[in-house]
Amino acid sequence: MKISKYIDHTVLKPTTSERDIIDLCNDAKKHHFYSVCVNGCYVPLAHQLLEKTDVKVCTVVGFPLGAMSTEAKVCEAKAAVNQGANEIDMVINIGFLKSKNYVAVYKDISDVKQAIGRIPLKVILEISELSKNEIIKACEICMDAKADFIKTSTGFSNSGATLTAVKIIKKTVRNNAKIKASGGIKDYETAQKYIDIGVDRIGTSAGVAIVTDKALQVED
């Protein structure tokens, strides 16, 4: 599979303009990325721009802190799907996880998954804030709650994806959930390393640079 089909082409900065979304979607169409990942307010625009293409619209819920109520996350997720989102990336409640309130963490994820049905749900762990044991526990809860993907990072914390954390996640979930690596993946070589260890999707704002690297390094 071409590396472009691993990429969720992403722009989530608070300063993102409508022009940025138009450019993002044009890049996604040109390079045949799997999806664009945008903030919720831009789901209708992205859906409109990509409606007649095979590029999916992904959006974030409870982003970037994960600390709002479950009811708010459910409402946000439902609204996004109604407006055309094909995938949801939600942030886990990190504080509940660290409090060992695992029932609340489970309910947070499960309620969102139930609300969106067959729509793929990716749960963002924010690995830079978690210990190895917390990553493992979070993955176990995600699987119990029927999440489709485990995602490493928001890109708004101390650091993003690491190969070490992805290996821990992969060992924990095996084939029971897919993995999305995000945060700090800026070039073809780095992206390929993550794919080689079992990542199913890559979230990056550097999608064009990654596929341009590929064109320079590898002959089709």
Question: How would you explain this protein's 3D organization?
Answer:
The structure is a single chain. This protein is of the alpha/beta class and 220 residues long. It has a single domain (3-217), classed as TIM Barrel. The protein is 45% helix and 16% strand. It has helices spanning 18-31, 43-50, 70-82, 94-98, 102-116, 132-144, 163-173, 188-196, 207-217, and strands spanning 7-11, 35-38, 56-61, 87-91, 121-124, 149-151, 178-182, 201-204. It has an 8-stranded parallel beta barrel with strand order 1-2-3-4-5-6-7-8, surrounded by 6 helices. Strand 1, helix 1 (18-31) and strand 2 form a beta-alpha-beta unit. The chain is globular. The mean pLDDT is 96.
Would you report the number of β strands? 8
Q: Estimate what percentage of residues fall within beta strands.
A: 15-25%
Strand order of the largest sheet: 1-2-3-4-5-6-7-8
> What would you say the CATH architecture is?
Alpha-Beta Barrel
Compressed to H and E, one letter per element, the order equals EHEHEHEHHEHEHEHEH
What is the average of the pLDDT values? 96
CATH superfamily: Aldolase class I
Look up the CATH topology: TIM Barrel
Total domain count? 1
Task: Tell me the distance between the termini.
Answer: 11 Å
Radius of gyration: 16 Å
**Which sheet architecture does the biggest sheet show?**
8 strands, parallel, barrel
CATH class: Alpha Beta
Low-confidence stretches: none
Global structural class: alpha/beta
Tell me the helix content: 40-55%
Q: What coarse outline follows from CA principal-axis ratios?
A: globular
Total helix count?
A: 9
